[in-house]
Amino acid sequence: QQQVKQSPQSLIVQKGGISIINCAYENTAFDYFPWYQQFPGKGPALLIAIRPDVSEKKEGRFTISFNKSAKQFSLHIMDSQPGDSATYFCAASRPTGKLIFGQGTTLQVKP
Amino acid sequence: EPEVTQTPSHQVTQMGQEVILRCVPISNHLYFYWYRQILGQKVEFLVSFYNNEISEKSEIFDDQFSVERPDGSNFTLKIRSTKLEDSAMYFCASKGDPPSNQPQHFGDGTRLSIL
Q1: CA–CA dist B49, B53 (Å, integer)
Q2: How far is B13 from chain A (nearest CA, A)?
Q3: Which of A52-56, A91-95, B32-36, B99-103 is least confident?
Q4: Lower CB density within 10 Å: C or N end of chain B?
Q5: pLDDT tens-digit profile of B40-76?
Q6: Using the beta-carbon criterion (under 8 Å), do A98 and B42 form an inter-chain contact?
Q7: CB B7 within 8 A of CB B110
């Protein structure tokens, strides 16, 4: 019930390509779904977040797509750049509550 | 931009010793969290803290762990008698009010190595 499942575990994309990372959750009480980006030696940094009353949110090259009925959400990185190479975590929570993180996806963008 | 700061960045401790990890959350935040990340694994929730008390804790957060907000700025995690399996990155996070509109902001973590 508390799990968030993330795939793929690793992803290699050419510069300029689209990176897609998928997550699925079980607990319908979750109402906040953020994506965090983590560089080596750093803490997770919020990238973009969505609430279940919205099906899509876009900020620059980053887009979250949300499918409430399927309990799935995904991150799309358009025009991927080498500087986007990092580990990406999806997460889910309730407003005051803990974040439940996915397993993480290591993204490598090749120049 | 305001940051969550954590000290030390790396702590090496002998098994069985007590360790205190320190965090300075963002100044106007009211909700505080500790997470840990074992090398190569996902970030796991340990404990949340609000209004000077624990609001939720995970199974990991057993009697060896405690948290405290000793003054208006610091938020600490104490491990009373460390074990080898406590070796991990420990992240502090904080969140503003109202909680439904605010993201959690993370520090850069303390790497805890138990020998």
Answers
A1: 6
A2: 20
A3: B99-103
A4: N
A5: 888 999 999 998 999 999 999 999 999 999 887 899 9
A6: no
A7: yes
